[in-house]
Amino acid sequence: MNIEGIRELRKSLRVKTEKMPQAVSRALNRTGQGVVTEATRKVREMYSIKAQEVKAAMRITLSSPQSGIVEVTAKGGSLPLTRFKVTPRQPTPGRRSRPVKAAVRLGQSKTVSRAFVARLGSGHVGVYKRKFPGVTRARPKNAKGDRPELPIEELFAPAVPVMLGSREVVRHVMDETERRMTDRLDHEIGRIMGR
Predict the structure, then answer these.
(1) Cα–Cα distance for residue pair 4/25, rounded to 1 Å
(2) pTM of the predicted model, to two decimals?
(3) Tens-digit pLDDT profile for residues 125-148
(4) How far is the CA of 115 from the CAs of 22, 27, 92, 152, in angstroms?
């Protein structure tokens, strides 16, 4: 090979090396988007929750060639039980109340003791339970000597970040991240090299 050929080869390698941070950044971003999809799919294999509920809790901060980091985070509080599979779905006024059954995890429907479905003044329908005081569960008397109704509280299921943090989901997402990153990086390097 003559001198000119070596010079051209070095120049070509320098150009390709300069494009590497951009290739890594692209591979990271595609991997991050894939992680959101895979995490959502795995959570839905375990919990009776809608995909939009899981995706709405996740945020992705994309990578730049300078940062070289993509970040996927999840935020959100506990979800009302009515966001999962619950029967009955609506209050049944005028009838003897049916026992409330809820399935937060797929295939694990359970009867929630002393729970009922009610619509509040705001129109919100939820699964509620009376707050019983102490161990005796007797309603305390008020100043007039009456036993007023006890306050109610809405029942909630785990938050999306808790579901995403389960061992099965984390293991699956880590495996998928490694696989996707390897494939995407190979693809992006191939684009630079003109393959």
Answers:
(1) 33
(2) 0.75
(3) 889 887 776 555 566 666 766 665
(4) 55, 49, 13, 10
Query: What are the CA-CA distances from residue 84 to residues 33, 35, 50, 108, 109 (Å)?
Result: 25, 23, 8, 12, 11
Token pair listed for 56: 């709405």
For helices 3-18 and 20-46, give the axis angle rounded to 10 degrees.
40
Does the pLDDT value for residue 56 go beyond 50? Answer: yes
Q: How far apart are CA 169 and CA 164, in angstroms?
A: 6
**Percent of the chain with pLDDT strictly greater than 90:** 36
- 14 vs 31, residue with greater confidence: 31
Copy the structure tokens of residue 156. 């909630």
Tokens standing for residue 2:
């003559």
Phi first, then psi, for residue 149 (nearest 5°) are -65, 140
| Mean pLDDT (whole number) for 14-29 | 79
Indicate the helix (H) or strand (E) that contains 186.
helix 167-193
**Helical (H) or strand (E) element with 85:** strand 85-87
**Are 123 and 150 spatial neighbours (Cβ–Cβ below 8 Å)?**
no
What is the DSSP pairing of strand 58-61 with strand 125-130? unpaired
